[in-house]
């Protein structure tokens, strides 16, 4: 029982794409590519800034069904074409970290690690995310929202699938 209480809240999603690893990596690294696929299905993405490098930041706005939200990626470690580590957070329009626009206590920052590997032209993307400096309540919220986050990412990965198919002609 002790191990369960000590276990950190986390989210892990593994998804395969019929595309070379370099193309999947570049979908994150290119402003034009990222703008075509990032975000939940049905949302409109506006990139306010895009600086894909260690120490760089990407600030964006998502509009979905009359609701607007702003978010930020702060890139920590990038190893082309194998992995990307970044902190994600909701922000105000100016890019200052703020609480979630949703009516629950979501962690202010989440550490994300994306790992890519390719076998026979199929790239496996593994996303691992954990709250950073979160309260016990925020950790619980993050855990409770796992199914919802899986569903949201599935829409995003569907858009990435479509982008990769277009990019490969």
UniProtKB/TrEMBL annotation:
Residues 18-164 form the Activator of Hsp90 ATPase homologue 1/2-like C-terminal domain. InterPro entries: ASHA1/2-like_C, START-like_dom_sf. SUPFAM superfamilies: Bet v1-like (SSF55961). Gene3D superfamilies: 3.30.530.20. Belongs to the AHA1 family. This is Activator of Hsp90 ATPase 1 family protein.
